[in-house]
C-alpha cells in the first residue's frame, strides 16, 4: 500500500492535528510489531550449553547483550533459582531441559518458564549441595556475551584423595598377583629402561643409602601404604629394605568445555583429540608397577590454567605433561614439538604465537576473576626456577627422541616460551604439541586410534627414558 507523505499546511486545523497523531501512533505500533520482544525486552538468547563433570557443572547462556540476573540457593530440597531479566522464552531456553543428562553429578533436572513479562526463571533441582559461582563474560573469540553458572559440589573432590584411592587398589592388585616387580625401588626399576635394557645393570643403591635387599623383605602393599599414608604411624622398614614409591605423572589435556582449542579443516576439536591421547597414556602409565597418572581433566570441561598447576602440586607430581595439538597460520605447518618454560621470552616465532594462544585459554574458557586470589596466582606464576627449567628441558629432550621416530619434528630441540601452565616451580613440566591439527594430513592421523596408541607408547617410553637418566629422588610420603 502506498502511503502519501503527510504535508503540513499553513491553515492547520484540529482535524489535521488528530490525523498527524494517528499517523505517528500507527507508525510506532508497526515498528514495535515488527521488532517483537527484542525492543520490548532487549536481549536474545543465542545458545545454551551445559558441561557436566565431577569437578563442577557449568551452564552457559550466550546472548547478544549482557543479561542482568538474580539468583537464590535453596535447601530442603536443594535448588538453585535464577531469574533472568529482559528475556522472553524461546527455543534455545526450552532446549536447556534436554541438555541435562542423567549422569550429571550436580543437577537432577531443570525447569524453565516465563516467570513474568520480561523475566525468565530457571530452577535447577540439585542432587547435592552446591557452591555456585556466577559471572558474566564479555565477547571474545567468536563468543558473544556469556552468563556463566558454575555449580561446584559443596565438598569439592580432592585430586590427592582420588589418587590415593587408585593407588590403594593398585597395591592390592599387585599383592594378589605376587607383585615382585612392584617391590623394587623406583631407581632400580627405571634404570632397566636405560638404552632399551630390560635387565637391571647391576646392583643399585637404595634411595635411603642402605644396602638393597630381596623383594620378599617388603611387600608392595606395605611399601605403598607406608609411602601414601602419613596419617598412619610410620613403620620402620625391614632390615635392608628398599624405599619404594609410585612415581606420579600429571597429564594435562589442553583446553576443554567452553574452550575448544584449535579446530582442524575437517572440524576436529583439539580438546577432543588430546583428551583421547591423554586417556590412552594414562592407562599405559597406570599399568606400570611403579607409576601412576593424575589427569587435570578426564572429561569435556574447562580447567583454568592456574588450577591445572595447583592439581599437579597437590599430588606432588614428579612430572607434568600438557598435551596439545595446535594450529598455525598456514596449513602446511606440520610436525611435533616439545616446549619448556622460558623466563626470557619465546625461543621462536612459532613459540611466541603458541604462547599467546595457550595463555589466552582462561579468557576463552571463562574464569571468574573476582573469585581468584590474584596475589596467590601471581606468586605461583612467578616462582619458576632455573632448576625446574633445566630438568624440564631434559625431560623434553627424552620425549623428542621418542616422538621423532613416529612423526616429523617441527623442531629438533626443546623450545621455550612463557606458558602459564608450565609454571609449577618444583615439577619438571613440558608442553607437547603432538601435531598440527591445522594440517589436514596430521589432523587425520590425530583422529586415528592406532596412531594415538603409538603416540601414547612413545610418550611413555620418553618418560621412562628420562627417569633412567634422572633417577627419582626420595620424597616425603604423599598424604
Automatic annotation (TrEMBL):
One of its GO terms (molecular function) is N-acetylmuramoyl-L-alanine amidase activity. Residues 195-239 are annotated as: Disordered. One of its GO terms (biological process) is peptidoglycan catabolic process. It catalyses: Hydrolyzes the link between N-acetylmuramoyl residues and L-amino acid residues in certain cell-wall glycopeptides. It comes from the Bacteria. Its EC number is 3.5.1.28. GO terms for cellular component: outer membrane-bounded periplasmic space. Gene3D superfamilies: 2.60.40.3500, Zn-dependent exopeptidases. It is an enzyme of class 3 (hydrolase). Keywords: Cell wall biogenesis/degradation, Hydrolase, Periplasm, Signal. Residues 309-464 form the MurNAc-LAA domain. It is found in: Periplasm. InterPro entries: AMIN_dom, MurNAc-LAA_cat, N-acetylmuramoyl_amidase_3. Its main location: periplasm. Belongs to the N-acetylmuramoyl-L-alanine amidase 3 family. This is N-acetylmuramoyl-L-alanine amidase AmiC. It comes from Pandoraea terrae.
Amino acid at each position: 500500500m502506498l502511503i502519501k507523505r503527510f504535508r503540513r499546511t499553513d491553515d492547520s486545523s484540529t482535524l489535521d492535528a488528530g490525523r498527524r497523531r494517528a499517523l505517528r501512533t500507527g507508525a510506532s505500533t508497526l515498528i514495535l510489531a515488527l521488532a517483537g520482544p527484542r525492543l520490548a525486552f532487549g536481549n536474545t538468547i543465542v545458545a545454551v550449553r551445559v558441561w557436566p563433570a565431577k569437578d563442577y557443572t557449568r551452564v552457559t547462556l550466550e546472548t547478544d547483550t549482557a543479561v542482568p540476573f538474580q539468583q537464590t540457593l535453596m535447601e530442603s530440597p536443594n535448588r538453585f533459582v535464577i531469574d533472568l531479566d529482559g528475556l522472553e522464552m524461546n527455543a534455545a531456553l526450552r532446549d536447556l531441559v534436554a541438555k541435562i543428562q542423567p549422569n550429571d553429578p550436580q543437577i537432577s533436572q531443570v525447569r524453565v518458564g516465563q516467570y513474568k513479562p520480561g523475566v525468565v526463571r530457571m530452577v535447577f533441582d540439585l542432587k547435592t549441595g552446591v557452591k555456585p559461582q556466577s559471572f558474566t563474560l564479555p565477547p571474545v573469540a567468536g563468543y558473544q556475551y556469556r552468563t556463566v553458572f558454575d555449580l561446584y559440589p559443596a565438598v569439592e573432590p580432592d585430586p590427592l584423595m582420588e589418587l590415593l584411592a587408585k593407588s590403594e587398589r593398585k597395591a592390592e592388585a599387585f599383592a594378589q598377583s605376587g607383585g615382585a616387580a612392584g617391590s623394587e625401588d623406583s631407581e632400580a626399576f627405571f634404570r632397566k629402561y636405560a638404552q632399551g635394557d630390560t635387565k637391571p645393570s647391576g646392583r643399585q643403591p637404595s634411595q635411603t643409602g642402605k644396602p638393597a635387599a630381596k623383594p620378599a623383605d617388603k611387600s608392595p602393599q606395605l611399601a605403598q601404604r607406608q609411602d601414601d599414608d602419613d596419617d598412619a604411624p610410620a613403620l620402620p622398614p625391614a632390615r635392608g629394605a628398599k624405599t619404594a614409591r609410585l612415581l606420579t605423572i600429571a597429564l594435562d589435556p589442553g583446553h576443554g568445555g567452553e574452550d575448544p582449542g584449535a579446530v582442524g579443516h575437517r572440524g576436529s576439536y583439539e580438546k577432543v583429540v588430546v583428551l583421547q591421547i591423554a586417556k590412552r597414556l594414562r592407562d599405559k602409565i597406570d599399568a606400570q608397577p611403579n607409576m601412576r597418572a593424575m589427569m587435570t581433566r578426564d572429561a569435556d570441561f574447562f580447567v583454568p590454567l592456574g588450577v591445572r598447576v595447583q592439581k599437579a602440586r597437590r599430588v606432588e607430581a614428579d612430572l607434568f605433561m600438557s598435551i596439545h595439538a595446535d594450529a598455525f597460520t598456514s596449513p602446511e605447518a606440520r610436525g611435533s614439538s616439545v616446549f619448556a618454560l622460558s623466563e626470557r621470552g619465546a625461543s621462536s616465532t612459532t613459540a611466541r604465537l603458541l604462547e599467546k594462544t595457550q595463555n589466552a585459554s582462561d579468557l576463552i574458557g571463562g574464569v571468574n576473576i573476582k573469585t581468584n586470589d590474584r596475589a596467590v596466582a601471581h606468586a605461583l606464576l612467578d616462582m619458576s626456577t632455573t632448576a625446574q627449567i633445566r630438568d624440564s628441558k631434559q625431560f623434553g629432550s627424552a620425549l623428542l627422541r621418542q616422538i621423532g621416530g613416529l612423526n616429523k619434528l617441527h623442531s629438533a630441540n626443546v623450545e621455550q616460551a612463557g606458558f602459564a601452565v608450565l609454571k609449577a616451580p618444583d615439577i619438571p613440566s613440558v608442553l607437547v604439541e603432538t601435531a598440527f591439527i591445522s594440517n589436514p594430513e596430521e589432523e587425520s592421523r590425530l583422529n586415528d586410534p592406532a596412531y594415538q596408541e603409538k603416540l601414547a607408547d612413545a610418550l611413555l617410553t620418553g618418560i621412562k627414558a628420562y627417569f633412567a637418566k634422572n633417577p627419582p629422588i626420595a620424597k616425603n610420603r604423599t598424604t
